[in-house]
Write a structure and sequence with these properties.
It is a single chain. The protein is α/β, with parallel strands linked by helices and about 400 residues long. It folds into 3 domains: about 60 residues, Archaeosine Trna-guanine Transglycosylase, Chain: A, domain 4; about 120 residues, Transcription Regulator spoIIAA; about 190 residues, Rossmann fold, CATH 3.40.50. The chain is about 25% helix and about 25% strand. The strands form 4 sheets. Strands 16-15-14-17-18-20-19 form a 7-stranded mixed β-sheet, sandwiched between helices. It has a 6-stranded mixed β-sheet with strand order 2-6-5-4-1-3. It is globular. The protein binds S-adenosyl-L-homocysteine. S-adenosyl-L-homocysteine binds next to helix 6. The site of S-adenosyl-L-homocysteine has 17 residues, from helix 6.
């Protein structure tokens, strides 16, 4: 199999030499044979030396590298990549652990598969393509996944309706590629969750906060907890299991609040310590009293693009300032940012500004990030997106 070729402009191969997986469209000198979007192409330097092969796409990222060796992207390729990914999750103690059947199996560039996300919820894998190339390869990937994981995966749900470039006009629909179970209860550290992969956000659950939720459990004893931006209630159940006195979950989405209430019933039926409110975060923070001594702030990404950075930082400062203003002395604040364009330092500065405005004495207890099943490829530092601080507020 020979692939069509694209040629780089002189000296534009530097980032590929350092195994960064993206070729920007501006780096291309010429494209041979009019490859279609999603087709695999071989990338050559201006000196006509092979340097990588990957998925071609029209857009600012022209090629997403799959391999830095000249080879065929065939069944063996996908199988090998998924085997490596599965083995990593096994070494993390995630896959094959009866207390936990919820994990990310493939994290795009972090697993050397740019444009592909696969989350596992018990016997169902939810697969999401962020590039046309991964969309084109979805059946091959699904076949390789079935082979690698055997009985573990009985259903594969493909969920790319909103993640693929609109202009590519692929007409894709969400749906099962394999199986079709409606059994949607998954387990994380022994807690149960309904996962709404059909209509929920992302692949149905925010798998990336697992370790941070587990850490929160240890802080919860006897505390009054506010879980702001709760989505399906993740942090709330850990707080309840950790012995919180009361737990209030808040999200602007009524659907998220319904799911949170369902999940509470699933784990702590009839427990009156928990209440959930469908309300805007800023409104709630303004009207709430000063009863909380453990607050979680896990907002959606405030900046999706670099241009929005400054506003996003202001947003984080404003949000955190409200928590510092109201949290009880001796309170613990878990505060997060999942915006990729906001780096650790920027986020910390935004939180510091808020702390300074409140005049409270604030200390950092933990610095948090994404867990091992969301690995950061060392050659693609942009993959580090989740940042969190655990703060002690006097
Ligand atoms: N902490 C959650 C994930 C949070 S995702 C977990 O562990 O699973 C961010 C959530 O913020 C979404 O559920 C979204 O509905 C909610 N949200 C977005 N804007 C909001 C606002 N202005 N006020 C309250 N909630 C908001």
């Amino acid at each position: 199999m020979t692939y069509k070729k694209v040629y780089l402009k002189p000296s534009k191969e530097e980032s590929l030499k350092r195994f960064h997986p993206w070729v920007f469209s501006g780096a291309l000198q010429s494209v041979e044979g009019e490859p279609e979007e999603g087709e695999i192409v071989d990338v050559y330097t201006s000196k006509k030396e092979f340097i990588a092969c990957g998925h071609f796409q029209i857009g600012s990222i022209a090629v997403r590298a799959l391999s830095f060796q000249q080879r065929e992207i065939d069944h063996e390729f996908w199988k090998h990549k998924l085997e490596v990914a599965y083995e990593l999750r096994r070494s993390l103690g995630l896959a094959g652990n009866p207390e936990n059947n919820t994990y990310r199996l493939v994290h795009g560039e972090g697993d050397n598969l740019p444009g592909l996300i696969i989350d596992v919820y018990d016997h169902t894998a939810v697969m999401q393509a962020h590039s046309v190339g991964m969309h084109v390869c979805r059946m091959e990937i699904a076949n390789a996944l079935s082979e690698v994981m055997g009985d573990v995966i009985q259903n594969i749900y493909y969920k790319s309706e909103t993640t693929l470039p609109f202009k590519a006009e692929l007409g894709q629909e969400n749906g099962f590629i394999k199986g079709g179970s409606s059994d949607n209860i998954a387990m994380e550290y022994g807690l149960k969750f309904h996962v709404d992969w059909l209509k929920g956000q992302k692949t149905g659950f925010f798998v990336d906060q697992r370790e941070n939720r587990y850490l929160l459990e240890r802080f919860a004893k006897g505390r009054n907890v506010l879980n702001m931006f709760c989505y399906t209630g993740g942090f709330s159940f850990y707080a309840m299991r950790g012995g919180a006195r009361l737990v209030h979950s808040v999200d602007s989405s009524a659907k998220a609040i319904d799911l949170t209430n369902m999940n509470v019933e699933l784990n702590f039926p009839g427990d009156t310590r928990h209440k959930a409110y469908a309300e805007d975060a800023f409104k709630y923070l303004d009207r709430m009293g000063d009863q909380y001594d453990l607050i979680i702030l896990d907002p959606p990404a405030f900046a999706k693009h670099r241009d929005a950075l400054r506003n996003a930082l202001r947003g984080y400062t404003k949000l955190n300032a409200k928590a510092f203003e109201k949290i009880k002395p001796g309170g613990i604040l878990f505060t997060f940012s999942c915006s990729q364009v906001v780096d650790k330092i920027n986020f910390r500065n935004a939180v510091f500004t808020a702390a300074a405005q409140s005049g409270r004495s604030v200390r950092i207890l933990h610095q948090l990030t994404q867990p091992g099943d969301h690995p950061v490829n060392i050659y693609h530092p942009e993959g580090e997106y989740l940042k969190g601080l655990v703060l002690y507020v006097e």
